[in-house]
Design brief:
Number of helices: 9
Largest sheet: 2 strands, parallel
Number of domains: 2
Number of strands: 2
Order of helices and strands: HEHHHEHHHHH
Structural class: mainly alpha
Radius of gyration: 23 Å
Helix content: over 70%
Shape: flat
Length: 261
């Protein structure tokens, strides 16, 4: 008769993932999505009250150009769009928590204790990406675009086009800065290892350069390099995170085998 599984290899206490049906998983996903959307809605309402102040901050990087509105509803559309973006940023920790609650039943008890660290690190990286975009990437991009001089030319930029550029860049960099978190989960579930990530570093740089070339709104190499640098740094940080995850998993599996013996 086969011996029982070691404690670390058994399904954790309170884990119903092995007994949940496909439709129960869908119901759980639906509940988490509803909570996340409600958090974004509440954040949007709060964002509507501070949108004007955020507008005055985000307009600072544009120098040497005049923002104009080409439609009567332009300012209102901008105000609503900015409120939604602010709402998403405010609700981001709640959204992360809902994601964690959805995947937590499939994790061991010692892995579920990492919820606070996951939310804190992911939210910090998201805000760091927004800050990097505002203080570094955005000034370079706008300087190149607005500073492209032509005779008898005065830059008059549509206010909605400007904000589409600014907010998409900020949101994109916030998501790009989630790379170490993504690698953490891939390593946690055994999809990747530090050795695999390091051996394929050259291919990762190639993919990063292609992404930077596609996403960077300017054709100059300097802005592209500014965009690539944090992505490469985050990939290397992800390798370090994966190494820690694999080392801890190996240590716990070794302890479990010794206990079984």
């Amino acid at each position: 008769m086969a011996s029982p599984l070691p404690p670390e290899q058994s399904i954790p206490e309170g884990n119903d993932s092995g007994r949940m049906s496909f439709f129960e998983h869908l119901a759980e996903l639906r509940k988490r999505l509803i909570y996340a959307l409600l958090a974004v809605l509440v954040g949007t309402i709060a964002g509507f009250t501070v949108a004007r102040r955020v507008y005055l901050v985000l307009v600072l990087p544009i120098v040497g150009a005049t923002l104009i509105s080409t439609s009567p509803a332009g300012p209102l559309n901008l105000y609503l769009k900015l409120s939604i973006y602010i709402g998403f940023v405010l609700a981001f920790p709640v959204v992360l928590y809902q994601i964690w609650l959805f995947i937590a039943p499939g994790l061991y008890k010692h892995e579920r204790r990492s919820a606070a660290l996951f939310i804190l690190s992911s939210a910090s990286l998201f805000l760091s990406g927004i800050a990097f975009c505002y203080f570094v990437l955005l000034p370079y991009t706008l300087k190149f675009l607005v500073g492209f001089d032509l005779p008898y030319f005065k830059p008059m930029i549509s206010i909605n086009e400007y904000w589409d550029l600014v907010l998409v860049l900020m949101l994109g960099m916030g998501l790009v800065f989630q790379t170490p978190v993504l690698i953490f989960f891939l390593a946690l579930f055994g999809v990747v290892t530090p050795g695999f990530l390091w051996r394929n570093f050259r291919y990762a740089v190639l993919i990063i350069s292609l992404v930077a070339a596609l996403v960077t709104p300017t054709p100059d190499a300097l802005t592209m390099l500014v965009f690539m640098a944090p992505m490469i740094a985050l990939y290397l940080l992800g390798i370090a995170v994966a190494a820690v995850v694999v080392r801890r998993k190996g240590r716990k599996e070794s302890i479990a085998r010794q206990g079984a013996a």
